[in-house]
Amino acid sequence: MERSRESRRLSVASSPVTTYYPVMMHRGHRAVFGLTCLSLLACGPAGSSGDAGDVAADAVDALDVTEEAEAFVCNSPPGEEFADDRFYHPWAVLPSSEVPAPRDWQLRRGIIHIHSPYSHDGCDNEPFTDGVRNEECFQQLRQALCDTGQDFAFLTDHATLFADHEFPDILLYAPGDTLIERDGNPVANRMACPDGREIIIAAGTEQGSMPIGLEHHVGDTPAERHDNYNDTTPAGIEALKAAGAVALVQHTEGWPVEELLAMPLDGFEIYNLHFNLEDGIAEALSLLTELRRAPCRVPVPELGLVPIWRENDADLLRWSRALAIRRSAGVLATDVHRNTFNGTSPDGERIDSFRRLTHWFSNYVLLPAGAVDDVALKDAIRRGRLYGGFDYLGYPVGFDFHAEAAGTFYEMGDEVPAGETVVLRVVAPTVSKLDPDGPQPVITARILRSDDGTWMEVATGQGTVELPAAPVGVYRADVRIVPEHLRPWLGLRADTYVVDHAWVYSNPIYVGVSWPPAP
């Protein structure tokens, strides 16, 4: 059976974008008929009625897409090999050094909540075999953090294995790295990348709670450590903090607010990818099916988060309730284990690879000028001096949220004294290297006030948004985006995915707030 590979130019009527789809076809009338049907249905004249993308996708369903039937087969939208590095594309990596920081701060970008071979369920549930570490998985994790341009990673390995292993192994240490030591003991690792960069790696565990940045184990023996890492009493949390940790909890949606408030936490997750996968399992399974049988319908695998992404409303509401009682930092949690989808996607890489999932979103930390180490990062996270960016929608460049009162600037995590006349200001970012001649996203910035367990929008707009004379309260900002610029890579059903998405979450600024005494 003879086949040829051609490119067919499909211009979806509902989109201003012309997209190229590589097409496999049989040299026969049935294949030509299939192409003609798809072209007419998908491309129709400008201004034609109906959802042309849906019609075209349904046409694919109407055809037998199996190769054995010698019928039309559609391939994915353009892959990385067609990317133009002058402009945004889904595979681009932007170093934090190219993201301007506000005022005199410096930015570092990284991952919070990630699992290594020192988690029992990491690496397809085979982190160790006969006591030997899964070296392939270990190296894949190291390489992924380098490939995605991270500056830091806070590991959160389950205590099942984590408690049984020692520093510096649990810091992803390998020859060529530089250990950060205190009192002669390794507490963190400057992991060396092939390009000469270094990534700060810190240890932590996801067990009873989720302490990140532990500088040593809490307990001398594995048995003591297991007990301590399961302890969520106030005394247990304080013991973790005494070991250098930032005290967080994982999977915030699973905790009653009363339990969260009973623990002396520094913060918790406001987004977790694992929750998204559980909540959107139907969409995830549909995506995997379509990638196999009709990939022209769905996004390229690098944008695999687009069909399943949703806000973790339960986390955001718990955050608001907690902020009525005390200050709390919010973080984005990747929660990658490399154990979910064991198989390659059309681009030859696992859907759940370390590289892909760490590329999708990250935490941006504001740091003072000077040398950066694990302590500086932890201090900033505790304070809430960071924001989360969903980088799969494009790297956000130029984001800023601050308050100004009496000529003084207050950053995320700061407390503005009562009685001041306060202006809150959020500056919406732009997409890094956006093609000026391509489709343009719609970007909206908002200022929100915590209000009795909810978030109330108090100012919104494009560009720079201000709230003058802000009354007493706890405020955060977010940036929303309708990602029109992604259309070339979203497949025939792009209209389904080009909807409102959260792009940036700030941490709070506290205006004239006083909290009730701690219990």
Strands in their spatial order, largest beta sheet: 4-7-10-11-12-13-14
- Number of DSSP E strands: 28
The major beta sheet can be summarized as:
7 strands, mixed, barrel
On the 0 to 100 scale, the average pLDDT is 86
Q: Structural class, from helix and strand content?
A: alpha+beta
Q: What proportion of the residues is helical, as a percent range?
A: 10-25%
- Regions with little confidence, pLDDT below 50 for 5+ residues: 1-72
Rg for CA atoms? 24 Å
- N-end to C-end Cα span: 76 Å
Query: What proportion strand?
Result: 25-35%
**What is the overall number of helices?**
13
Apparent shape: globular
Description of the molecule:
There is one protein chain. This protein has 519 residues and is an alpha+beta fold. The protein contains 13 helices and 28 strands. A hairpin with a 2-residue loop joins strand 5 (128-129) and strand 6. Helix 1 (29-43) packs antiparallel against helix 2 and helix 3 (135-147) packs parallel to helix 11.
